[in-house]
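Appendix B, Record 12. Input sequence as logged:
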Amino acid sequence: MTPALRNPCFSAILCGTALLAPPAPAQSADGAGLLASTPQSVEDLQRIERQLQQMLPRVLPALVCIELNNGSGSGILVSEKGLVFSAAHVVDKKGTTLKIILPDGTRLPGKTTAQNSNSDAGMAKITSQLNKKLPCVEKAEKMPRVGDWVFALGHGGGLDRKRGPMVRLGRVVSLKNGVIQTDCKLIRGDSGGPLFNLDGKLIGIHSRVGSGLEDNLHVPMKDFDALTEETAEGKTSLTPPPEQDSQPFSTQPS
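Logged structural output:
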């Protein structure tokens, strides 16, 4: 398990800068265009840190932990009514009951509403009556580009409120076959967690947590858009999700 991060923003920077790719074209949005090339100074690193510090308070409240079958993964709220995006191999088949844990420790019942075993996109919904609107994040309208700066969130190693969620900074290294590949360091329990651009827009969901630094794959938003359309048409896949190369779940449920 990765040690606790006392300052997740700066720790993410320290981790990310050790694995930078060659310079890439500048990104288009405000935060995303900060540093598209390798940082050359402490000031460059501080600019990234400041951007992360601005984005994290916006997205962390929407990060959830998902528990089922003595294991746990991650997910992200995308609607105020409790819709959660995660990985298909985390939420299992449609109709599966699970627990969705909010950042404050509140445990709510949930159910898998849709999943696609081919893309590994999965969706779940909080099923209890809510007395307030939940925090949620905004999806990016476009796919990221190779070289774009991104950051990953997740409950790696399982939910630990004393440590808090883990934040990892990295770059997009490939977009093969429409799947996002990054060098953000992920571990067991991160599966189903969100990948953001530096403007805090959701661009992907962690799918495969590989053993190599660049073996981490993320499901893009276009696959969730397709899954939403399939669900509306009643065509959602009910087949069990495929076996993953790496174990997605923590064996230490909270």
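The two ends are 15 Å apart (CA to CA).
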